[in-house]
Amino acid sequence: MKKQKRNTSNSIRFAKKIGAFMLAFTMVFGMVGCNNKGVNADKGDNLSSGGGSSSGSGSLSDYESGNTVGGNTGGSTGDYETEDKVNGGTSGGNTGDYETENTPTTTPPSGSLDDYVGGELADLPSSLIDDEYRTKDGYSYFYHHQHSPTTMPIAAWVAPPPPCNTSIGNFTTNQITLENYKTLAESGINTIYGLYDIILGPNSASNPNVSNALRWANATDLVYYVRDTGLLNNLNQSGASVIENECSWYMNQAAYGGTLTSDEPGIGNPETPFNKYKVAREAWNQTKYKGIKNMYVNHLPSYASKNQLYYGAGMTGSEPSIDFTGKNWGNFVKAYVETVKPDMYSYDFYPFREGKAQFADYYFSLSTARREAAAGNIPFWVFCQVGYFDHVSTLSEAQMRIQVSTALAYGAKGVQWFCYWLPLEFSPKYTAGLVDHFGVKTLYYPMVQKINKQVKAAGEILMQCKNMGVIQIGNSYDTIPTGDLLTTYGAVTSTSGSTGDAIIGCFEYRNTGKSVYYVASNNFDVGTTVKLTFDKAYNVSVIQNATETKASNQSSIELQIAAGDGALVVVG
Questions:
Q1: What's this model's pTM, rounded to 2 decimal places?
Q2: Could you give the angle at which helices 275-284 and 329-340 cross, rounded to 10 degrees?
């Protein structure tokens, strides 16, 4: 879930989440702490262990600017980002050294595993609700059984961390506390992904961190996803027995919602695309967790490089013969959905990169994810960015809102934020989190909190709807695919906008006979005024700013939408 670049030798690619995130920053910043060594065990490219000198000299700014660090190497940040060999391959360290190292460098929280697990085992349902719409084309949705079927997942990366030691600083405080989880829940996020609280095998000293996180998540009504770096390979090698014998201790806890098995994998051999995930999924489906807990994988965006989409983020190899970038990305999505048959499809697309807006293929990506997910009878979730990851500029509330509003208008059934807790490898100058390294709220916390309230309110209805297309008013930052465009739908016979730009998501509301519309501003600088005209007088309900208003006998309605914002309209 990271920003990509067309040419991996170009500008700095920020690293994030699971495998590539930890691998890149482990190499760049020399991070060997956090009880967090089990990074994407399927990687094995040689890397030097520092900036090319045995002393690991060089400051954070050297790495951030791409300057050469150390006197004996030509290696720069680009070398680390593309995972090419550095310093002529003279270093004895490779990714395997970091990935398999289980020795903790900090003291885990005191107490035995039983102290953390006690009494919080889940009353696991035998299945989710028996609902034909849960796996029915564009109606499809995935929900966490800890919440109601109409609660839209609002997820975030990353959870409060245990003590960690990085080159940016030695973070000695255990942040896995009830207070921090209360702050997390108050933001409106209902699902959180672990990173530093990591599973390194059934007897690892770091596992109490996971149990502690599950405990506080349960206490605050949050769903928690465990980061288990070995699960994918173990499912391939041992099948369902690995879950029964080694993973049930955390999978049976009340707050557990799923396991992050991989981040941004490549398609691999196109003759057997994503076969490793197919085998793992088949094993997963042999357990009681099938369809209830999520074997979670997040995917690369359409602007990823040719190599990344083929081999996976952070991986390199010979020039692939097949290109899945840009408009070919649909083949990538289709291959995963058809081969693996997951519970949902998740991807990231960050339109604010390198200090500027970059929306090329933004609506193409939403359109593709919607279409291929519906064809596989699953929903799609999107990642939205908090702040810049590679630039000291800040994002406005409208710039964050537009990502969510347009995704909802396109039928997304899950919203994810990068990031909640500022990753410990990120320079503090990149305030790309709702809270900073120490859990202190940033300027983004109240912004996202407000956005999440609208997502929660509108999601209660959108989780029961099928997206039929969109109506465009005015201009757009990115071309909306022609096949998605409607001029009228349901009760709406015409639309107009006196100011600004908008897209109107058009939805079928199951079993009600009502029409639903999500009116989203398509401009993060100025708001818009949109008028919907109906074929007759209706009762109309509007959810805007998380507040519902109702009116009867309306033949039209006019909405004033703030820049980047959105409003849900139910007609009938």
A1: 0.82
A2: 30
